[in-house]
Amino acid sequence: MAIVRLALIGCGGMSAAHLRFFNRLKNRLQLAAAVDVDETRARQVRAHLQGGLGVILVATAVAVPWRRRRTAIG
């Protein structure tokens, strides 16, 4: 099975729970980027990862099809 590379968008309080879950799936996925408006938080996520992290981003665009936006937002 191919390893899925993903970006964690939002490195605030809930990111710790997401990272624990990602760690359980480390044989199937790799965290490739951390995104947060606060660069310090994104860098803190990188500091806690083993094996490195490809990219630190402070901005991103998430494209969601028009009919799915309501569900994606909440």
CATH topology name? Rossmann fold
CATH 2nd-level architecture = 3-Layer(aba) Sandwich
List the total number of helices.
3
The residue fraction in helices comes out at 25-40%
Enumerate the spans where pLDDT stays under 50 for 5 or more consecutive residues: none
CATH class: Alpha Beta
Rounded to an integer in angstroms, the radius of gyration calculated over CA atoms is 13 Å
**What class do helices, strands and sheet pairing give?**
alpha/beta
Q: How much β-strand is present in the residues? A: 15-25%
**Shape category:** globular
Ends apart, CA distance between termini:
31 Å
CATH level-four homologous superfamily name:
NAD(P)-binding Rossmann-like Domain
- Sheet having the most strands: 3 strands, parallel
Order of helices and strands: EHEHEH
Average pLDDT, all residues = 75
Write out the strand line-up for the largest beta sheet, numbering strands in chain order.
1-2-3
Number of structurally distinct domains: 1
